[in-house]
Amino acid sequence: MLSPQSLQQIDTELAKYPADQRRSAIMGALRIAQTEKGWLSAETIEYVADYVGIAPAAAYEIATFYNMYDLAPVGKYKLTVCTNLPCALRGGVNAADYLKQKLGIGFGETTSDGLYTLVEGECMGACGDAPVVLVNNHKMCSFMTEEAIEAKLAELR
Ligand code: FES
Questions:
Q1: The whole model's pTM is what?
Q2: Which parts of the chain are beta strand (E)?
Q3: Other Cβ atoms within 10 Å of 142 Cβ, number
Q4: Cα 15 to Cα 18: distance, rounded to the nearest angstrom
Q5: Which one of 94, 123, 129 would you pick to mutate in the ligand 1 pocket, going by the greatest count of ligand atoms within 8 A of its CB?
Q6: Which residues of the chain have pLDDT under 50?
């Protein structure tokens, strides 16, 4: 279900915790599984729960609570725009609107070519860098003016 490389990474996560606290590795394990699969299907969540040694329901609780986990297929690039108040006051909503207009999609949608998914995000702790866009849950892009968005989209294409 997961590659030997991913299982090895999950083993590394598991090794960070005492044997009776394996459940603490579930967030990292789900992240690793999502990186390999692109999103988390029910089968993948249950497989990871079984591998970590927790009940599937406990893994679902985590996967459905945090918005970095994708429970449906997403585009090659998932762009998460923070629109919480501090960012909104510094152009976050404008950046989101620009991306919507540029890509022709709304929040929660994917472009027809499968390249981009747009997501409305919560505070990422980078309010001072607003507007911010997170690419594929890992790469933070700061000060995303319309010009910066254009440059980022050109870079990703
Ligand atoms: S409010 Fe957007 S990063 Fe904090």
A1: 0.87
A2: 77-82, 109-110, 116-121, 133-135, 139-141
A3: 12
A4: 7
A5: 123
A6: none
